[in-house]
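Tokens in:
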């Protein structure tokens, strides 16, 4: 009797899952729990939205984070050069603005896809908390660089920048340093969450 009821409940659960618009993922211990605290969903199986979940069978998050960790620091270095070298700003300002915009977009997609991945593997708390802030920093840097470039490009080479633009350049330098620092922190904690347990389990014994 008990086994029949269990089988019936299992069948109803499979039927309701197949009828829904989302797929379900079953939790597996990926080793994330060995790295600091980890937040896990309450249920053993939970819905995973198809949007930003996987692409070609791989987690979207694992792919787009590479864009964020490359584009944001690269844009930040370019922004610093724009702030301190007017000639660089006039020549490469457009490229830096594009890089900053792409970096901000990558940070937003990385955050959203990371939340989807967390539904499958759990959430490394420190990495997730830092990752929530990075898109705001990246978007802020993009806005600062865009505004600076729009005004700075119209200043002739034989004239100095106005004081308010010099102050904005100083702000951009500080924001760029913060963006680089925060990106490194997010990337480092994410790498630790993925690889710490793997390295511990595969560390060859000294002969």
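Residues out:
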């Amino acid at each position: 009797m008990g086994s029949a009821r269990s089988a019936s409940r299992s069948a109803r659960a499979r039927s309701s899952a197949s009828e829904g618009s989302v797929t379900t993922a079953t939790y597996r211990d990926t080793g994330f729990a060995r790295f600091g605290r980890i937040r896990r969903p309450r249920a053993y199986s939970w819905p995973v939205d198809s949007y930003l979940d996987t692409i070609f069978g791989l987690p979207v998050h694992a792919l787009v984070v590479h864009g964020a960790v490359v584009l944001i620091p690269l844009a930040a270095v370019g922004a610093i050069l724009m702030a301190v070298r007017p000639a660089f700003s006039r020549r490469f300002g457009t490229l830096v603005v594009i890089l900053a915009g792409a970096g901000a977009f990558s940070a937003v997609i990385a955050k959203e896809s990371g939340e989807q991945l967390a539904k499958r593997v759990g959430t490394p708390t420190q990495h997730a908390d830092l990752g929530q802030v990075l898109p705001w920093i990246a978007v802020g840097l993009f806005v600062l660089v865009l505004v600076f470039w729009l005004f700075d490009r119209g200043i002739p080479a034989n004239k100095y920048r106005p004081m308010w633009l010099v102050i904005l350049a100083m702000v951009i330098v500080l924001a760029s340093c913060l963006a680089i620092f925060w990106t490194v922190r997010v990337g480092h904690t994410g790498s630790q969450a993925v690889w710490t347990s793997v390295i511990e389990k595969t560390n060859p014994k000294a002969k």
